[in-house]
Specification:
With 214 residues, the protein is mainly beta. It has a single domain, classed as Acetoacetate decarboxylase-like (Beta Barrel), CATH 2.40.400. It contains two helices and 16 strands. Strands 1, 2, 3, 4, 5, 6, 7, 8, 9, 10, 13, 14, 15 and 16 form a 14-stranded mixed β-sheet that branches. The chain has a two-stranded antiparallel ribbon with strand order 11-12. The two termini are 24 Å apart.
Length: 214
Amino acid sequence: MAQVDWYMEGVEFSNCNCDYACPCQFESLRPTNGHCRGFAAVQIDNGYFGDVALDGLCAALLYAWPGPIYEGNGEIQAVVDERADAKQRDALVTVLYGGETDPGATHWWVYRMMSTTVYPTIFKPIEFEVNIDRRTSRIVIPGVLDSTGRPIRSPATGAEHRVRIDLPNGIEFETAEIGSATTKTTASIALDLKDTYGHFCVLRHSGKGVVRSR
């Protein structure tokens, strides 16, 4: 059970190797290509871990599984904003790896429990530009990751196509705008994604799970 009182609210962007309708969001049996790999990054607008303030910091988690997440045997690696001091770093690593969190309450907890390989945390500057309404993003972690997001465009007309996923009981977000994303990494977890599933959302998490707005 969660012991330390913590909360994080901010903008999240995520990109994985599945089609735009990511099967995980629909509890499908298998990922689009049979395996799962991607990343998620968050910019914390309002956050704390006990008496440690987390406002303004960024963090990311890279991940990969040989099959669906629920079968386990995954790999994960956290990236923490180098501006964080020692206490903030410890707090962010704890949360990203599911610590001080009720079992199954957040996607971070699930990712950690379903992973057998945890690479050393990377401390780097994180360039984070995300506009949820426009469905655009730019995430750069020097020497680690370069990612961009854009709206889905109709292959027939070229017009922007807007899609949202609403998860009333989700463990990551309530509502997310869906887009097309491209990501390349040079970290322990290799990503070479082009025009695959991306989501843009507001993240509100505590040790007990998603804090609902409604």
